[in-house]
Amino acid sequence: MLxxxxxxxxxxxxLFASPAENGALRVLDVTVLRREDFAMQTAYxxxxxxxxLQEMILHAHSTNTALVEAHSHPFTRxxxxxxxxxxxxxxxxxxxxxxxxxxxxxxxxxVLGWDAFDSLYxxxxxxxxxxxxxxLVGGQVLRASRESERFWGEVRG
Length: 157
Ligand SMILES: [Zn+2]
Description:
The chain has helices at 50-63, 85-101, 147-156; strands at 12-19, 25-32, 38-41, 46-48, 66-72, 107-112, 117-122, 135-137, 140-142. By secondary structure, the protein is an alpha+beta fold. It has one domain. The protein starts with 11 loop residues before the first strand and ends with a helix. The model is unreliable at 1-6 (pLDDT under 50).
């Protein structure tokens, strides 16, 4: 998991994944974002420089992979990790945009706390997230908290 240990700030990464058996995605490559990739990087908020998402989309396009964004919540302990209201506001635009730019594959967002994670994904031309993804790490299935799906339904309808 990504830890917020670097001065307690949120950290972020993009993963590039290819579709495998039964709708699974196999992660092929990871780009860990650096300080200069962010317009803002605090303990509670990350904002990318304008060109970063565009570069990630182009890389996914040229390698024919699905794009997965991941960021940490260094302030979240325990099982009930979820995307923040600001995360959801951003994802409401970015999710449908990326899944439109990269047709035929999902756009996945992960948020990682100290003890748990959550996820949402977009596919096709749907406005809202279609569900969550679980992770298979070293042969072990790690389940998403699914807190964000519930939260999304409450807040964004
Ligand atoms: Zn967040």
